[in-house]
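Deliverable D4.2, example record:
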Amino acid sequence: MQKSELLVIDDDPISILLSKFFLEKSLSDDSAIRITTFSCPIKGFEYVKDLVLSQRDRALSTRILLDLNMPGINGWEFLELLKKIDPTHKIKVIIHSSSNSKKDKDKALEINHIEYYLPKPMTHIKASKLMSSFPASVPLSDSSTFFNSYTK
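Output generated by the structure prediction step:
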């Protein structure tokens, strides 16, 4: 059986460590989900591009947990690049950001790749909810309800 994959792309090593810890803790022993982390968004994009171009079936079972504020390319620029290599929006993205900006949340609503907006920091409850719905998606319009009580 082919594993699904969750890519964590975030320049903050503490955020990556915290996210990976809670996400892995939320997995069952027989889980078919692999978690891969990238602290450099460009390397994360290169990995995704390789998946799309050479392993399309595996790319379909991939989700990305993406920070917005990163050096090199930020989350919005990453999404623009993703649109070019995946114009049919097969790879879904969960924005994981410390930004509480209404502007960022509204902008996320307009991007088809984005499933929902998950505020930082990662917690056990958020990770459990995310992993229990993987790879099924929660529509972005429902994400405030989905995570409203899990933001503390």
